[in-house]
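Suppose you are handed only two things: the residues of a chain and a line of SMILES describing magnesium ion. What would the bound structure be? This form records exactly that question and the answer produced for it, so the two can be stored side by side and reused later without any lookup.

QUESTION INPUTS
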Amino acid sequence: MQQPQAVSFDLDGTLATVRLRRWRLWRGVVLHPAILAGYAGVVEELRGERPADLDAAIVARLAARTGGSTDRTRQVVDEWIDRRWPAAFRHARPPRGVRALVEACDRARIPRVVVSDHPALDKLAAMGLGGWAAVVSCRALGALKPLPDGLHAAAAQLGVPVRRILHVGDRPETDGAMAAAAGAAFLDVATLARGGLPPWAALPSTSPRSWRTPPPASTMRPGPPCAPTVPTRA
Ligand SMILES: [Mg+2]
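ANSWER OUTPUT
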């Protein structure tokens, strides 16, 4: 694999596992079982579409599915998906292989970005992961993976050709397909978990700069408060 000009990381299931964090939503699931149980399915249905207002489309479809009002559904999504769920990432650490790749980027002075379906700033802040050159929310762009808009946005912010970006993610059918649609390379976290660092990243660690610091606000893409990940694959 040629050394990339930038490395893009998915968040949920890549920079942090999500499976064991879902228990933090147990109270919401008790209070609003239909909405929280249906959220992920609606997000999956909207992949590949570019509605004029993606957030409104999610809420409208979810309300229709559960028989609730759109106002009430939006309130529940705002509170539990966008506000409480990101807090569940407090002190989360990336898996070892992902951490090694992040450190390799820093040693090689390769800019790294986050391209997530959902707003990621609050989650990154909760994790204390800094040093990102850009943070892109595909939901804020109105084009969930596997549409390539998120990677194109990251490339534009960095000023690098999108085909020279390596995207790292846990879902080949969304992360991998997005990379393919953009002409970028893809690395599955499962490969990293097996110790499969790319050759350019496999040099022994010397003194990577610290990346466990809050990212400077000026480097972050503003977006709506953090979001959903609840029922995606870990
Ligand atoms: Mg993921």
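WHAT STANDS OUT: The pocket of magnesium ion is lined by residues 10, 12-14, 169-171, 232 (CB under 6 Å). Confidence is low (pLDDT under 50) at residues 216-234.
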